[in-house]
């Protein structure tokens, strides 16, 4: 059993490791429960969610088509996705089923994971920081889900449509492996969700005195370059997709500067 009643300030290093082990264990169980639920609902996980971006009826494609029509053309409208997904490995479908279920389990259990992390670090925080626990957990969970939605509804469809329709010759047909397709959608979705946690990470680093708003402003230009490189890596090689990814990340960077400034003002007020 975890030593929940013991004064955290009197706990040894091994006691803290024991506490951490129990928090990680409970978080892992939550992920497994979410993964089992996703594994059972195979039709929803694959036919509706994962294979959604390969359908011309996907909401993102319909929205882009409508916008293109309103602007006087139908360049971005299409009625079919000219590629098919195949499985070439004996255990390929089962492996992708497991992997997709685990990713879904992480997304489903993420709010609980954040709550477990908060419970672990809470004893070492000041009283006023503990009061903000509920809002911190809520903001962290919402940012993650917002990033997941952005990755799934914006970046993934653009990537699937670009790479799925790109050809070097009419003699070459795109036949995409199941593992390649599933990895693309799940990796982009999960990575974007984690990327949207930038303001939360900055908050904790600023609270520890590692980051300052002046430092973030000083290296803003470097951050822009890093963001553009990152956007080029996770998106199709076209300027529109890269801009769509870079804009929200830079907005989050600016928000993070404001967060760091607020933390610094609070620290200075305490010192005064």
What's this, in brief?
With 272 residues, the protein is an all-alpha fold. The chain has 11 helices and 2 strands. Helix 4 runs antiparallel to helix 6 and helix 6 runs antiparallel to helix 7.
Radius of gyration, rounded?
Answer: 22 Å
Can you write the helix and strand succession as a string? HHHEHHHEHHHHH
Q: Tell me the strand percentage band.
A: under 5%
Q: What is the spatial order of strands in the main beta sheet? A: 1-2
Major sheet description: 2 strands, parallel
Low-pLDDT residue intervals, each spanning 5 or more residues: 1-6
Total DSSP E strands = 2
Number of domains: 2
Main location: membrane
Subcellular location: Cell membrane; Membrane
Function: Part of the twin-arginine translocation (Tat) system that transports large folded proteins containing a characteristic twin-arginine motif in their signal peptide across membranes.
GO molecular function, one term: proton motive force dependent protein transmembrane transporter activity
Describe this structure in words.
- 73% of the residues lie in helices and 3% in strands.
- It is mainly α and 272 residues long.
- The protein has two domains: 185 residues, no CATH class; 75 residues, no CATH class.
- The chain has a two-stranded parallel sheet with strand order 1-2.
- Helix 6 packs antiparallel against helix 7.
- The radius of gyration is 22 Å and the shape is globular.
- The two termini are 42 Å apart.
Structural features:
single chain; 272 residues; mainly alpha; 2 domains; two-stranded parallel sheet; 11 helices; 73% helix; globular; Sec-independent protein translocase protein TatC; translocation; proton motive force dependent protein transmembrane transporter activity; TatC
